Amino acid sequence: MLILASASPRRRELLARCGVLFKIHTVPVEERHDGASPEELLAVNAALKAEAAARDFPGDTVIGADTGIVFDGKLIGKPGNMENAAEILRQLSGRTHEVCTAVSLRGDRRTDFISRTRVTFKPLSNEVIAEYLRLVPVLDKAGAYALQDHGDMIIASVEGDPDNVVGLPCRELMDALGRSHVSFFLFWSFARITALVVGGGYVILSAVEAEFVRRRKWISEEEFMDIASLSQTLPGLIACNAAIHLGYLVRGWKGALAAVAGAALPPMVVIMLAASAIAQLPQDAAWVRGIFMGIHGAVAGLIAAMAWKMRRKVLKGVIPVVIAAAAFTGMAIFRWNPGILMLAAIPCALAWSAWEFHRAKRGEKK
Description:
Elements: E1 2-4, H1 9-17, E2 22-24, H2 38-54, E3 61-71, E4 74-76, H3 82-92, E5 96-106, E6 111-121, H4 126-135, E7 155-159, H5 162-166, H6 170-177, H7 180-196, H8 201-215, H9 221-233, H10 238-278, H11 286-314, H12 318-332, H13 338-365
Parallel strand pairs: 1-2, 1-3
Antiparallel strand pairs: 3-4, 3-5, 5-6, 6-7
Helix pairs in contact: 3-4, 7-8, 7-10, 8-11, 9-10, 12-13
């Protein structure tokens, strides 16, 4: 059993998304506030929490964590009052800082590590700061802000694991725990998706996005777009390609094997059962044709919904729109081979990227 030595609802939510069973157990500890570098201070406090809780659960793995903002070599903790919160946001305005989370595992595993994420703030006016503090309760948050609460008002960019900014670096934590449970979770998730989702690979991609990007947040939207693109480009079934890619990204080759096994097994069983049942139906009956007409319509709608979601991330700029329009026209009207279209799109995109890079360099020189 995993024991989370933290009462933070944000850490509780993040750990729950990892698909693990855990229990909350906190013990009051006297945290240190000075006498060390910011990273050392966070590491010491995380260890104090984990060791205090581990004494009550000697046979289990206890997770202790401490998150802080490192800015100009100093540690910024939780604000003492609203005036202090406004001052912290003014200091961070237009600048880049690091969010550091120290994690300590105690019990049957003993590991310590620190995860770092770079966060850049937008230039903030006094009016924006006042509005943000009105909308978000910040007195319990290091740095007087929260990525998950109206973060788009004040944050320009995040480099690294966004979960770390919220309070727990889930990927690194799963690495430290060995992630044996993750392989089973990948198998079960893909088995559930491919068993229950009707409509083929494109519809399954929509279910994968809902499960692993929006619900679990195991991968980012950019990583999902890479998975979706490669899954449709490479030979093989889209669902199996996506399972292999995502499984490897999350858990290495073990995750890839678990995910593709989960993606392939249920469809094999369902298809055999469905084929044997459909073969017994009167194929010319109106009600049989009606069933398939309904399925066709639903599948078309699901594919269109997936395309509508993807367009926000993909169709940025004139060239991607032109490539998408040319590919659609080629397939829908001229029946061009999809493989040829994919290969033709690569040099077009490379040329566009080179041109954009050249323009950016020329702008820097000016």
